[in-house]
Amino acid sequence: MTDFFKGLKPVKFKGPKTDNPLAYRHYDKDELVLGKRMEDHIRPAIAYWHSFAWEGGDPFGGRTFDRPWFGPTMDHARIKADVAFELFELLDAPFFCFHDRDIAPEGDSLAESNKNVRQIAEVFAKKMEKSRTKLLWGTANLFSNRRYMSGAATNPDPDVFAYAAAQVKNVLEITHELGGSNYVLWGGREGYETLLNTRVGQEADQMARFIHLVIEHAEKIGFKGQILIEPKPQEPSKHQYDFDVATVFGFLAKYGLEKQVKCNIEVGHAFLANHSFEHELAVAASHGLLGSVDANRNDLQSGWDTDQFPNDPREMTLAFYHILKNGGLGKGGFNFDAKVRRQSLDPADLLHGHIGGLDTLARGLKAAAALIEDGTFDKTVDARYVGWEGKEAQAMLKGKRSLEDIAKRVEKEAINPEPRSGQQEYLENLVNRFV
């Protein structure tokens, strides 16, 4: 045990009337929502990188936090692991997530780096024997080191591709050994800065081959979790190949991967792509790609990914609506890819951020469930498309009518449709009744 969280007690559910700032007001993990425990709907996870590895820097300033585990040695990494599991216990967190570089320092060679990661994974394994916290997903950091400045899988140098593959192999195997439910391929620099020196088609081929290699190895070692891609439109690359869910689907479909890979969708990334979070969820669900979620928000006055804790219940209501209609997240969950602000120096701030985030998710979940149970919202939307249930509409949709057939029917029946209201304001008000 460390004394980093000294004096702080485990966070408990106290109900919406409590004035205890270090208690859950809405997140009651055992409350049944649509016949399922709240925790099992949300499957919340703590992000190792933001909560323990981030030093408080921003694009214009460096470290502001002073943590006892900040340092380059394995001893620092072990202290970090101790503190991490103490936070998991305080928050009663069922899951966590990590990159390899979050948990252990990089060595002078890949062999040394992988050995460091494996040593900390062994520490995790021992701690997990006594903890209820499990691994939601693992991933490899293929973006921070200068070797990856031109990408990892998409790099013009095949040796970088090979190095990245060997790095992923290690983390994938550790994720499997720790019982992880997912493995994420986060392409932080899989994109280009200029087309003047880029072969877009070749880089796409390389990325597809890389993913095939990961899938093949996952099958070889018996990994039963999901393989996920996390769409991101920009930052740092001028153009990312995994720009948004629709772009990812087109890529996967081209290379025959659409049945083997799903998406890990982040709120902040959706906004950087000029989409809403619900848009990305709806598109993923429509293509069968909805795998997991990174919960956060951006400062909409800033042009980068600020990774703040979620605090908008209405946004999460619409998100959970699509998730629940999709049948839930399955092996996925809500990873808090969120960090306290660089001025939030106290250990308690880590608790406040996660408490607020979980309460926001709980409110969104319950509101979405009530919206679905009420049925008015679905009936209104269904009524808008009821015409497509007709005989001729179905014939058109199923390819039983040619363009000529359709044109003849329009002329014969003198079809001249009048526009109908989309009822947007009514639906917005309806949703707000349940938030």
UniProtKB/TrEMBL annotation:
UniProt: Mg(2+) 1 binding residues: E230, E266, D294, D337
InterPro entries associated with the record: Xyl_isomerase-like_sf, Xyl_isomerase-like_TIM-brl, Xylose_isom_bac, Xylose_isomerase
Keywords per UniProt: Carbohydrate metabolism, Cytoplasm, Isomerase, Magnesium, Metal-binding, Xylose metabolism
Xylose isomerase-like TIM barrel domain location: 145-276
Cofactor(s) listed: Mg(2+)
GO cellular component terms attached to this protein's record: cytoplasm
Subcellular location: Cytoplasm
Sites where the protein binds Mg(2+) 2: E266, H269, D305, D307
Catalytic activity: alpha-D-xylose = alpha-D-xylulofuranose
Pfam entry (one): AP_endonuc_2
Gene3D superfamilies: Divalent-metal-dependent TIM barrel enzymes
Subunit structure: Homotetramer.
Protein name: Xylose isomerase
Organism listed in the record: Devosia insulae DS-56
This protein's encoding gene: xylA
